[in-house]
Specification:
The protein has 315 residues and is of the alpha/beta class. Helix content is 45%, strand content 17%.
Amino acid sequence: MPDELAILYNDINQDKLRVTRPSKLVFLCGGVISSVPHSKAISLRDYLFRIRGIEKKLKGPIVLAEKANQLYRETNYGDLISFEEDIARIAAVVLVIAESPGSLAELGAFATNNTIARALRIVMQAQYANTESFIRFGPVERIKRVERSFVGFYPWRINQRGVVVTGSAAPHYGEIVKFINQHIDKTPASELFRNLGDAKQFYVTYWVIYLAMAVSQTVLHGYMALLYPTLTASDLRNRLYCMELAGWISKESYSGKDYYYTLSSADPFDYAYKDSVREKDSIRRKHKITAAMQKIEAAPNHVRTVVVRKRGGSR
């Protein structure tokens, strides 16, 4: 394993290091989204996402809660909440449209989970703005007290069959888009590393993948073990799954391996070094690390071509 990687990481002043967020992810929860093509909307979330295509209007990609259906096949998560916590760690916004029994239960769980509540924003029917209920004066009030703007009330209606009345939602579509984008905008494009909390390992993993250009999971785990000796292969697999959902990374399956790569050609780190460090030429040091990584695992030409194309050019 390239000792240069561990040396560079240890030379970084983590109090002054800034990291760039690869994307401002929106984790969208709420009512059911219909799987029937060209059918009418059955929930506000269905109307916003499937009928109106709201993702095109937002300043960040959407990940649907339904992605959790693949958890037990593609990850090592033992429970749903652990996945939701990890997504919340890298999300700009966790948006719950409180419109169904399932989404209300989800809202209650999220509002009392400190990891998720940090990014939690709520869209709710205006008729419940002053209604006395456990939900309104429980989890909703808890988030509202943190910041009034975290909860958006809109006067859409639901018919007797529990289906959204799209005509009542349509006039408020633009304001809902504005509400979400305002909270995306409030999420900084870059942050001090020391303020990232439990999200630090996601950003370091992303950085290591960037340096490697393309890397298999097994080799990546070896690199990460130099920096985080207690990181398990299962935990790494889970993080890669979340980062792929978020649009931070992708993978190319070729021959007997899956190669992970970042979807941006920009280094996520704005380097700051400890005062005692003499070698502060980041470009030279990164080149040396990448060269050492290529000796351990050189991606095939096909994979390298795909990576360069997906990144929009060479690094």
